[in-house]
Amino acid sequence: MTFGLTFLGDGATIKRMPLCNVLAMCGDTPPVLVSIHDCSDHMASGGKKDAEYIAGLFADKVEEYDPDKLYTDLFFFDGAGNMQKGGEVLTAKYPRAYCFHGGEHVVSLFFSDIAKLTPIKVRAVCVCNHILHMMNLTYHMLACQRLILKTCRLYNVFGSGATHSIYAQFMEQSALANRGRKVGLLRGAGTRFATWFYAMMRLLRMRNALLATIHQAKFRSLTLNDRARHAIMDIEDPVFWKAQYAILRAVFPSIRVLRYCDSNTPAMDKLYSLSHCTSVAIGLSLTSLNDTTLFGPLSPSDGLGLEENEVYGVTTGLAEADT
Questions:
Q1: Shared domain check, 90 and 204
Q2: Which domain holds residue 258?
Q3: For residue 15, what is the domain's CATH number?
Q4: Same structural domain for residues 178 and 235?
Q5: What is the largest CA-CA distance in the chain?
Q6: Residues 290, 139 contacting (CB under 8 angstroms)
Q7: Claim to verify: residue 172 and residue 304 sit in the same structural domain
Q8: How many angstroms separate the CA atoms of 135 and 123, rounded?
Q9: What's the burial of 292, exposed, middle or buried (CB within 10 Å: 0-12/13-18/19+)?
Q10: Which uninterrupted H or E stretch holds 33?
Q11: Do residue 281 and residue 159 come from a single domain?
Q12: Cα–Cα distance measured from residue 79 to residue 160, given in angstroms and rounded to the nearest whole number
């Protein structure tokens, strides 16, 4: 049986060095790295990593591995405009080939949309048998602003170790709740690939340990600042946990999609199934996600100020709030 060739590409800048990676795969071979292009000289001479340049880099490898142009049938790139336009140039040059948006980047953009700070129309992007299906969904995404910033604050207070006494007591309770294993909170980041949602999942998992920590007699003897007191209020607030559960229930299938996209084993059947589960989960969660008692705009009473905003990488208009 003869399989076609697929080329995958992704641009990167590492320590100020502009690079472009070229990988190749086929039906019975996982992705292998065939070239890493250092674009420094090209850009130093006034050039850009534009569509024409990207297409030229990949065309050289196509000619090397498929000189008769018989087997190349797919190109996968990330969502950057130059990469996608370069893919269009390649499909024009190689009419048998198609260009698609890489699955992992599609899912990361989905999570990026969810974490927006203003009410927006979200496009839930699903990967189904190499076809990208777009599903329109509208709801108040200020919900995620509050959840993400509160998740950040809880990490700063209980999970970072910045306040050693609080951290030590929490880790003690964490070990008791996890059969002797100390499981900490995760630090989210304002980058792609759903890191904030992993942090929220870990926070939800550690709810009982957090509650046990703040209800200890020795914890109540600690001197707490305003930020710690607001974090404790979040832990004791059932609405906060209900909102966490609602948003994570809606996106959980997509988190699993992201992990399968990062696998080196065939998983298209699982991606197809989970993309369908994502659409179903979001649809079933619409009532909760539109519930203004769960998800509302930020207010000064939330106590979310500069420290959380700096970690999250945003400005919320609450800079004057006491942290």
A1: no
A2: 142-312
A3: 3.30.420.10
A4: yes
A5: 77
A6: yes
A7: yes
A8: 6
A9: exposed
A10: strand 29-38
A11: yes
A12: 33
258 domain residue, yes or no: yes
Tell me how long the chain is.
Answer: 323
Do residues 47 and 174 both lie within one domain? no
Tokens of 224: 């707490």
Per-residue pLDDT of the chain (323 residues; tens, 9 = 90+): 467 888 888 777 788 888 888 888 887 777 788 888 888 888 888 888 888 888 888 999 889 988 888 888 888 887 677 888 888 888 888 888 888 766 666 666 666 665 553 322 222 222 222 222 323 333 344 456 677 788 888 999 999 888 899 999 999 999 999 999 999 999 876 555 677 888 889 999 999 999 999 999 999 899 999 989 999 999 999 988 998 888 888 888 877 877 776 666 666 677 778 878 878 887 888 788 777 777 766 566 666 654 544 444 433 333 222 32
Residue indicated by tokens 């990490």: 155
Q: Return the structure tokens found at 40.
A: 């420094």
Q: Please indicate, yes or no, if residue 317 is contained in any of the structural domains.
A: no
Residue given tokens 């641009």 in the structure block: 11
